[in-house]
Specification:
Number of strands: 7
Distance between the termini: 60 Å
Low-confidence stretches: 1-7, 133-139
Strand order of the largest sheet: 4-7-6-5
Number of domains: 2
Order of helices and strands: HEEHEHEEEE
CATH class of the largest domain: Alpha Beta
Strand content: 15-25%
Number of helices: 3
Oligomer: single chain
Radius of gyration: 20 Å
Largest sheet: 4 strands, mixed
CATH topology of the largest domain: GMP Synthetase, Chain A, domain 3
């Protein structure tokens, strides 16, 4: 006599999938503490949401390994999911592979631009360049100003308000703006 394994409960599987999808939806509302115009999901900081037993696990990758906002982001993510009734929930920080600007969604790029931060452009395969300190005159391609669109811009500082951004100025409209560095 062969005893078959019990079939998986389709209702439980549907409920689990709905819970994970609801978590993703909630994460769309958790704003980055340093750039509150864009969600942590749109920045690509949220790598995965999965069920581990009865708990939701949210996998986070900070934009930089020393990002000072990492603990705030983790707290805000967990608080939002708990407030939505999706607990129990915990976060796992995953630093490898390292975060890349390629993980920023198109919606995130549009929101950065509307906020006044020039989003990074896509990197063509094989064109990745290690992050280096470079003098102002060594800046490569000019960036379009997010306010007026002019390409007459210059880098003022390799670092803006955070390590993942650089500070630029538009020579046409004279306005400063930040740029997410492509990594």
């Amino acid at each position: 006599m062969v005893i078959a394994a019990p079939a998986a409960d389709p209702l439980a599987a549907d409920a689990a999938a709905a819970r994970v999808q609801r978590a993703w939806d909630v994460l769309d509302t958790v704003l980055d503490p340093e750039v509150p115009a864009v969600s942590v999901r749109d920045l690509g900081i949220v790598r995965d949401v999965r069920l581990v037993g009865n708990a939701l696990e949210v996998v986070l990758t900070p934009t930089y390994s020393g990002c000072p906002a990492t603990e705030v982001i983790e707290h805000d993510v967990l608080a939002a999911l708990e407030a939505a009734g999706l607990g129990p929930v915990h976060a796992t920080l995953q630093r490898a592979p390292a975060w890349t600007t390629e993980w920023i969604t198109e919606r995130g790029r549009a929101r950065l631009l509307a906020y006044g931060i020039a989003p990074p452009g896509p990197l063509a395969p094989g064109t990745e360049v290690p992050l280096r300190y470079m003098p102002r005159a060594g800046a490569a391609a000019s960036l379009a100003c997010p306010r007026c669109g002019s390409h007459e811009t210059e880098r003022l500082s390799a670092f803006g308000s955070t390590a993942c951004k650089a500070l630029y100025r538009c020579m046409a409209c004279r306005e400063p703006f930040e740029h997410f560095k492509p990594l």
